[in-house]
Amino acid sequence: MFFVLISLRTILAQNVDSLVAKRGILSTQVYLQNKKLNAKELEEIFQTTWQPHIKYKWANILKPAGPILAIGGVGLAYVALKGKPTTALVNQKEVNYTVRSLPKLLIGLSLVTGGLCLIESSNELTSNAVRIYNATLNTNRQTSFIREIKIGLNPSEVISMKLWIR
Prior knowledge:
The chain is an alpha+beta fold.
């Protein structure tokens, strides 16, 4: 007699009040019942829970700073790569060349990287706020009506299945 005990739990079904965060390249959109929410509506929803509210506030603070920093870094890197045309006298000949600043280039690339990190951090904070809000909605909701399933071989060597429902 060989029985295999398998307990099945269904994946949490989306609750009617739960939010859905959809990540994009540069932004995270939040939906409630397939309706895209704007910032004001999200602020009203997050007012009832303190942790998602704080995370969403920080996300809104970081959101405009990231692109500004990245664009500034691109500009500084362009200025560094463009350089400054100068001339020098080498062996009684005038030579034209361009002086490029490596520190400016490195700072510009660092600003681009920092700006992209701020954008990603803002998206991550928004996603975490949605996840925490959904977790606090109803922690005791029933996830399945199936209590237990037994699958195995019975004494006559036939595959059998027993299902217990709550």
